[in-house]
Amino acid sequence: MQIAQILDELKQQDNFRILRSLKHEGKYVVYNGQKLLNLAGNDYLNLSNEKVLKQDFLTHLKEFEFSSSSSRSLSGNYAIFDEFESFLEAKLGKKILHFNNGYALNVSCLQALASIKNTLFLADKQVHASIIDGLRLGGAKFIRFKHNDIKHLQSLAQKHYKEFENIIIISEALFSMDGDFAPIKEFINLKKEFKNIKIYIDEAHSIGCFSDDGLGYVKFLGLEKEVDFLVFTFGKAIASMGACMISNEKDFFINKARAFIYSTAIAPINVAWTLHVFKHLHKFNTQRKKLLELSAWFKNALASKGAVLGEAYVISFILGQNALASKISKKLLENGIFAPAIKEPTVAKNTARIRFSLHAGLVKKDLEKVLEVL
């Protein structure tokens, strides 16, 4: 076996991953006895530290199981799943199907869609690994278009629309690495131009943080009825776990999404917490406003230090080489800031970076220290 050789090569490339044992204390983590400001999480609204929200949930919690002990297709479809799905269906006007997590959802839903004959997928170059894995597992015919390049996408649609019965455009609403927004309005214009186009949008990093109800960037734009497949994940700004597919094809995914069929369903108590958060999302406009204002200030200040990417609260400081990104991350760590380097292959070659994931629990003073270290 070549395992040792593979690991040695990763170490030589400064790309060897480790797991750190962390203790969480509010906006800090404790690592090796050192208290560090955590800028590596995705709890964008800081809801995991909303004590009133959590206490209200526990106060009104009925008896819920800590395991479903079965897939939903068998005996694991507890009433709370239907309650959660019905709640979101009333808000979004489309059917909802709950999954255990976003990775499982994307892999199995795209694998299922790939089984539809004569279908072409056009995926943004920077979509999440789970999307690419789903397309590959499904043996899909897919082409990756240049990141957020609507002209390239249009040329591909023009070239292939007569050849395929269905074309599905895949993108994220807010991208997890470059922190920029997809041109969703332009996708919809293409859908109107080419009648066989459908749109698949992953809202993993935008759910919770936009519009007065927090129901994602697509709804903020008023375009939720135009997007055929919309994905919410709950492990980031919702401060929970799980994910859901929003579409009019619920029965198709119940029958064809393998991760849904063959996985023990997530614990009912987790679904109850997710529903509780969604019922209170409209109360966190102050946090949403603060997050966007703080992010704009930090991005502008950080730009004086070098190349910066990000249009919202995911802000990347571009350093190029893996070794340099690791060096800067270590320097930040030594000064009480936890912001691990993001390196190839997670991002493209020569774009290694420090990605700062901001949240509503931060203040300017926290981020001023980052600027001082840099």
Automatic annotation (TrEMBL):
Keyword Transferase (UniProt): yes
This protein's cofactor list reads: pyridoxal 5'-phosphate
Picking any one GO molecular function of the record gives: 8-amino-7-oxononanoate synthase activity
The UniProt keywords, alphabetically, are: Acyltransferase, Pyridoxal phosphate, Transferase
Against Pfam families, the record matches this protein to: Aminotran_1_2 (PF00155)
The Gene Ontology biological process annotation of the record reads: biotin biosynthetic process
Show the coiled coil region(s).
none
Aminotransferase class I/classII large domain location is: 35-374
Q: What is its EC number?
A: 2.3.1.47
**Can the keyword Transferase be found in this entry's annotation?**
yes
The name this protein goes by in its record: 8-amino-7-oxononanoate synthase
| Origin species | Campylobacter armoricus
Its taxonomic placement starts with:
Bacteria, Pseudomonadati, Campylobacterota, Epsilonproteobacteria, Campylobacterales
Protein's gene:
bioF
